[in-house]
User: What shape does this take?
Amino acid sequence: MAGLRGSFSNLQALLDSSQQSPQLRTKLQSQLSLASTDSERNGTERRKPRVVMVQMKLPLSMTEKEPAGGDSGESRGWDFKVDENALLVQACASEIQRDFEVIHVGCLPKEVDPDDQDAISAELKERFNYMPVFLGEKLKQKYYNNFCKQTLWPLLHYLLPLSTASSGRFKQDDWTAYMKGNRLFVDKLMQFLRPEEDFIWVHDYHLLVLPALLRKRSYKVKIGVFLHSPFPSSEVFRAFPKREELLRSFLTADLVGFQSFDYARHFLSCCARQLGVEHEMDKGSIALKYFGRKVYVTISPTGVQPSRLLECCSWNDTVWRKGELMNEYKDKTILLGMDDLDPFKGIELKLHAYEHILDMHPYLRQSLVLIQVVNPPRSHSKEMEALQLELRECVERINNKYGSDKHTPLVWLDRSVPHYERIALYSIADCTIVTATRDGMNLMPYEYIVCRQGPDASPGVRRSTLVVSEFVGCSPSLSGALRVNPWSVESVSDAMLQCISMSPQESMLRHDKHWKYITRHTASHWASSYLNNLKKACANHSSMKFYGLGLGLDSFRMVALDVNFRRLDEVSVNEAFRNSQSCVFLLDYDQTLMTTTSFSNQPSEEVLMVLGDLCASTSNTVVIVSGRRAQDLEAWFGGVKNLGLIAEHGYKFWPPGGDRWETHLQVEPKWHDVVLPILEHYVECTDGSYLERKESALVWHYQDTDPDYGSWQAKELLDHLDSVLANLPVEPSKGNGIIEVSPQGATKGQAIEVVLSWTRKVRDDVDFVFCVGDDRSDEEMFKAVEHVTYSPHMPAEVFACTVGAKPSQAPYYLDDPNDVLDILRQLSKKK
Assistant: This one.
């Protein structure tokens, strides 16, 4: 605290100095503002928690100031105004601002002179709590216009750049710019971030690698990601060259949000197919287990703020424009389309369907009007130019065929529409049509419903009708809309016709149903719900230790471990071993004693020598605990005197100093005859699977099958076996890519109890246990030795250890098999 006050005072002293340049004074003011924020936080009054909304563009408008007294050549400065109609501004109103301090991070709508950046940063921080990120025109072109809009945007909307001339082809330079842009956002966040307190909410596809880059610099930061765009199927996403980098970055977040279940389902499928990470249900939530962490997936449709839109309905400009439009289109049936100029909005499909109505129903040609608003494109490409040409030709054809001096059937508004005019258009439209071939949420239908509802004081019955593409994110929420396949001209035109001819009572009921939904699921409700889920997802951060593994984006992993989980202390082990009289060593074999780089399954001479030295002491009981077949273990380790062996996860036991295998489980041999035909049938039906036969078990391997089909077949097989084996003393179990049918009780945990019981009979009570393994089957072993720690009949020093720093029942870990051999070598020389 004292250090902070000292730094604060030094900044203030520099600022008070009259010798500083204007640029330096502005920079010091910006740093002083950040310092004062932290100083206030450490004061007596407890500050509200902070949520940092990270987005590509800040929700504000900026205009250059008029020169005061003629153009002097100096910078005139900028006027800034918050965009009250932006989704994230509306979402943070009322409830969120009451519970959180909200900070917005993003780029300005326009790039500014570097000399003005510090002054603008200080102004935006003071006035709006906005933190601008400055990219520069050159980087922004490659990062936003090239990679985001021409590569990522089409990919997320299911479009692959198959043509060599396509502007959407992956370019390494653009990817590098994307990475650099995301790093600049991280740099800005690190200037003021309180990692263990703040909630970081990252928005949309422009910042998909930000979670991983931020997590590398701050392990305990609380990160949520929300994708406002669609997410493609795995068959499309797998074609992207940097697919694993993006997926792993998603999984470094704590919560990942999507607009609809379809998009979440595609994401989960990509994680399973590309990374082998399966999801599970956790108390009604979808969770992915990833290196000890649970990454939650939520489906959170966005909404609008009805109160804001209803307020706009009463503006003088809105009332005037609505009256003007009603007079212009008196006695007409108004269809409304309002879209960005984008290939995925399906505008040309809408026009074809409208033309089909006029072709087939002549009586509507003089009474039906389609008003199509087209917002300017956000980027330019060859595909966009071709679309503009097609749309112009379509508009001219329809108006030339069916228009006259007194009637224009298709009103084409190819311009930005002011907000008041937009509200007025919504208010007069009898039907609104959305024919996007792929889209995120698209809140236009929600806005239309609110505007048709109008203020409480407005007269008349509330009615509205909607035609909505089934490929739009809001489609599942609008159950009263007519859902269509936009690629079918007949389906869209039939839906339009149904809306036109719908009875007032039916349109009123459909409108009322939508209105009730929209007033409950507002933008602020969406934000509040998402942040509550983010809080829950991060609830156990304080009880975990986090480790970063890997350097590059494709290899970086965030590992979460229990706070009590630590590396095995060799000094403590040596001390306990030195003071013991009866020691037990329980050693897994694969990936524990055998190195991962070994090309042979057989143990090395070094392993055999260390085991021989340990077994040479009469106070040591050394047992290899493995899932391998008995004949393999006997062939490999039979030459090591006094070494015990456990085969097939405890089915067979070769006691130390013994001369034959012992079987402690009596199994009805006929169960093979029941299970074998079933497993052979699944091998035949599931391409890539195979059957492994052990003396005690049968194993169906499906790790090389199609991930989805293999998982379906595994679930079906488990259900099948559960019903068939109900009265037999065997049980099926699911492992990593396997279904194993084995005798009941044939686990490493049961095997450990056999070993400890044998040791107590042959030797003194055990006072030292060293247990080491590396995979899921060894967790049963760790659970069994944990009971020894608390057993009053066998007080012993127990060291249960897993290989690799990963989540485990064991309280200790060693890095690799070489570490295991090193500590065994040390202990073999102590006695």
